[in-house]
Amino acid sequence: MNDRRVIGSILSLALILYIFFKSVGVYETMSVFWQVFKGVSSLVMQLLNTSILNILFKHRIVYYIVGVMLAVFQIPKGKEGHYIGVMFYFLIGLLVEPILNFLSTVI
To answer: Does the pTM exceed 0.90?
Structure first.
């Protein structure tokens, strides 16, 4: 059921892009989507005091870094491995968050 929603959302986005491309052209379409991205990013920055890049990519970046760290340090599986993984996730997240916020302000 969730896959149908995702596919429907992607198809509706593709249809919107096609209509924009046909009516105003590629440059204007990219300009409109860039303005929408900047508006959403500034709104998220005001409401949550974090960037949209942080919301979208922090988990995806930190999760894999922590997985590699757990494998390299050969942390045992189970409860203690879970607790160590949570601590690593929190610490690496603290390092990644300012970098993503900085990239958001640069963009």
So the answer is: no
